[in-house]
Amino acid sequence: MTKENTVSQPVQTVATSKKRNFAIEFWRFFFAIAITGYHIGTILPRTMPKALVAANWMAGAGEILFVFTLTAGYFLVKHFKRLQANPEYAQRKASGRAWEYIWDRMKALLPVLALGILLGITSVAIFNGETFLHALFSTFNGLWEFLGLYSAGFGAAYSQANGAMWFISGLLISSYIIYWLMCKNEDLFAGFIAPLTFVFLGGWWAWNGTRASQVAWSTFGVQNAATKSVIGTPVTDAVIGFNNGLLFVFLGMCGGVLIYYAVEKLKTLKFNTFTKIMLTILYIFVATVLVIYTINPTWISGPYSITNNDGGGTLTRWLVHLLCILLVGLTLLEKDFITQLLNNKYTAKVFGYLGGASLYIYMLHMPFIYFYVEIRGQNPEAPYSWAEVFFVVAAVSIVLGCIVKFLMDKFVLRKKKVQVENVGVVSVPDTTMQTVDVEGTQPKTVAKTTTKTTAKPATKTTASKTTKPAASRTTTKKPTQTKTTTKKTTKK
């Protein structure tokens, strides 16, 4: 009985320490749907003007994408710190740990990545009237996409048939680099490289108005009109180029790393009622501005243009990014009343499921815009309204995203969740990050040591020691003598 208690207690500790923040899941879902509207109203009308007319609805979501980079960096560090608590894992080489991290992420994304790319190729081929052979060769030319290297400049099918995938590629590449740097020297990266990168790249873009774009390439310190372009504008090749979209993701993840250490420090402080009220007021203000800006930036920022820094209005792009940092930081801090309200037990499962499906929604929504236009037909005299396309595509994307999440949880991630429960607190692995060493050797060896250490004060160990060692034999004779004396006294 004692042995079972000592083994089961650490498992309960892990379950409580991995409490899910459903407020951040709510925002992830909301912004994923907003990006769907952003592509319909701002990006795709450039490539299909006969079917879609440009609109400002959800146009602000192009900047709100920054939220996903911040949360990606935050949870990367959280995962790193969780595994770093295991001394055996921490002593392994940084390269091996980084490759395992990115490989496990690839395994978790690969089925949906393949589905999104194939749907993108099919939808664009049908929309453009391409032959099957052309689409087949485009698939072969885009095999680098399946490795997540599109944003690094490797060839992609139809120049990225599913345009949303550039962000997934940027996340995979940036995640490997950051995780390796964290394993190599956490203090150097978190204390110097991350803030330097954030200040250098952020200041550079804020100064000359450059924005994240998967078609914009630039050299550090060199800017021209071509490198500031977005989809539909020719791009001049730089001598030594870096994709702006990849740099944007890397910058945002560095910001997420900094948020992690700031939030962990703030969590150690005591917040009284007045402080929580002030944080709630700040949270309401930031969330309100970002929601309004996301739905239609012209309401508070004047005429909007994705190629300009502020569109001639009053709310600049990098001010919006600052509000994104505040929103993510406050939500992860969980000290205001709004975040506590969003984490209520009644909507927790709904927010958790939709938030978990948000990445799948993002990866799969783009092809259905082409499918919808192809099914309804193109009419140059009467292009479809933004609302008509948005509500249909958003509904299909949500349903498909939830179905994909169900299938991924049941058939792809199911085995990993069981292993986490079996391992317990030993290596404290994340459900999306199981490695061969964590699954195999490490849990068994550490579990044995914990059993031995907890078994020492138990009654079984004292009993075994009293029977085997010589010293214990002498101690066992004494109780027999006392028993005999007591018997004699009772007889008398």
> Largest sheet, if any?
2 strands, antiparallel
Give the count of structural domains.
2
Net shape = globular
Radius of gyration: 28 Å
Strand tally is 2
Q: Spans of 5+ residues with little confidence (pLDDT < 50)? A: 1-17, 221-235, 415-492
**pLDDT averaged over residues:** 74
Please write the string of helix (H) and strand (E) elements.
HHHHHHHHHEEHHHHHHHHHHHH
Percent helix among the residues? 55-70%
Characterise this structure:
With 492 residues, this protein is mostly helical. It has 2 domains: 2-455, no CATH class; 459-491, no CATH class. It is 70% helix and 1% strand. The chain is built from 21 helices and 2 strands. The protein has helices spanning 2-17, 22-43, 61-64, 66-84, 87-90, 94-128, 132-141, 165-184, 186-208, 244-267, 273-295, 298-301, 317-333, 337-342, 348-376, 386-412, 414-423, 436-439, 441-455, 459-467, 470-491, and strands spanning 217-218, 242-243. The chain has a two-stranded antiparallel sheet. Helix 4 runs parallel beside helix 13 and helix 11 packs across helix 13. The two termini are 42 Å apart. 40% of the residues are buried. The model is unreliable at 1-17, 221-235 and 415-492 (pLDDT under 50).
